[in-house]
Design goal:
The chain contains twelve helices and 14 strands. It is of the alpha/beta class. Helix 6 packs across helix 11.
Length: 288
């Protein structure tokens, strides 16, 4: 297998796996920032056998009043979810979303971080399945009895201090759209802008609809950023969703990257941390 096929699965490949004797676990992780965890789309129709995943309860701990918006889930919480979904050591776990797969990317990152051996994102997501005349159902599968025990720490997660170091001596990517990076918009945070030294690389540019761009296009997109194997590199976003999706996308071109899981929500909550406004990494650096 290639790095890309270890991370993504096509509709045809998924159908073949479902028709085989593989233990396939399907997870519906549709996610809208305006209504995270909504079950409405799932109720209207989902892939047969797919379990609904609530990003806010299954893939994170309850966030504090200040600080990281989406902390990683504790092992006990995640183990309960994995058991309910029926995940075993040999399971092929396939996650999907609609449009740009933000929720599926978060699920991929959390499950790989927790040591689940085989996790793949359905390329094109629900739209690709429907376009290929795949069946949808409103039937909800029964809870499973999965036995997989998570071992967190399999992917590298960093804190604010390390993010600041990488911004100064390596490559720190900011996966948010430009209006958040420049400081023109916020999601309710008290401070706007970006971490000084961070390079804006919106993850949406890596996708055509819900499909990840080709290996050639991804290499071109990230070319010139200095993401070589010997360079410290990390990514952050607003709350830890787009950063996980970026890590997933980069894994398909064999570029591992650390994730600052607290991201901007954690950074801006610390008054001693400097922020930068404007379209370039060090533009108009300001203090709290």
């Amino acid at each position: 297998m290639t790095p890309r096929t270890e991370t993504l699965i096509s509709v045809d490949e998924l159908r073949a796996a479902l028709d085989s004797d593989r233990d396939v676990v399907l997870l519906d992780v549709r996610f809208e920032s305006s209504d995270p965890g909504s079950r409405e789309g799932y109720r209207e129709g989902h892939l047969p056998g797919a379990h609904f995943v609530d990003l806010t309860t299954d893939l994170q701990e309850k966030s504090p009043q200040r600080g990281a918006r989406r902390p990683l889930p504790a092992a006990e919480r995640l183990q309960g979810s994995l058991a309910r979904w029926g995940v075993d050591q040999e399971s092929l776990v396939v996650v999907y979303s609609e449009g740009i797969p933000a929720g599926a990317g978060r699920a991929w990152f959390v499950l790989k971080w927790a040591g689940v051996p085989e996790v793949r994102v359905l390329d094109g997501g629900l739209d690709a399945w429907v376009a290929a005349e795949g069946e949808l159902t409103r039937d909800v599968p029964e809870d499973g009895h999965g036995t997989f025990e998570p071992t967190p720490g399999r992917l590298n997660v960093i804190d604010a201090d390390r993010a600041q170091q990488i911004a100064a001596s390596g490559v720190l990517l900011d996966a948010r759209s430009s209006q958040f990076y420049t400081g023109a918009a916020t999601r309710g945070e008290e401070r706007s802008g970006h971490i000084p030294g961070a390079v804006n690389t919106p993850i949406a540019t890596a996708f055509d609809g819900g499909y990840l761009k080709s290996e050639r296009e991804l290499v071109a997109l990230f070319a010139g950023l200095g993401l070589s194997n010997g360079t410290p590199k990390a990514v952050y976003c607003g709350g830890g969703v787009a950063a996980g999706l970026t890590a997933m996308a980069l894994s398909t071109i064999d570029i591992p990257i650390d994730v600052y899981i607290g991201s901007w929500s954690d950074w801006e909550s610390q008054p001693e941390r400097p922020t930068a406004l404007g379209p370039t990494p060090a533009a108009h650096t300001v203090k709290a």
